[in-house]
Amino acid sequence: MTTTDARAGTTTVPFQLPEPAERNIDEVTAYSYVYGPGAPINLLVHFGSPETTLVAADQWIAAAPGSRPLLLPDFLIAFDVDVNLYNQQRGYVISDQGKPPDFVMEVASPSTAERDTGYKRVEYARMGITEYWRFDNTGESHGARLAGDRLVGTRYEPLPIVEVDSNVLEGRSEVLNLMLRWEDGELFWIDPATGQPLPGLVSEREARIEAEMQAQRAEARVAELEAELQRLRERGE
Q: Yes or no: is domain 12-200 CATH 3.90.1720?
């Protein structure tokens, strides 16, 4: 962590993880299913306590400074942690945070699928991460469209995934107290208290389209009123 030596008036910079290498284009699948729909912000609003709740990804997880392996998750959630320290260290150092992340998810891509279901599953368990989830929009890369594990002792055990119908799968994340839903190839975070997805953010594109539609409706209404006024004038009313 960052410390200050009062006598010397200097600040010690915390251990920093290396910058992640640029990913291959087929690896950047998390944006379409997690970031693009606004899940990080929605989840932070839902959980509250943004100073101590971390919802992030694409930075390394390490057991301790200088340790190996370094794992790069698509998505992680951790409660009661030092968010500023995460930002300063450019990633999650378990020994410095005092606990592992509570939740990690990998989103399927052809080039990473084997690591997601094999190597990473073993290493995340060794790091003590409570829940490890996989999302695959087609099921062709991971072999399952939705899968979740919970740490029992030192090993992961599968969490139940329920087929609600042919287009919907659901599983419960105990650590998040949320249902994760695969529906028609999309990922939804469901509040079990309401059975509804967490409220979403309206994208700039959606807002622009709605504004354009409202403007068109207003123009159409003005045209109707002008036509009606012209008819009244022609009849002398």
A: no
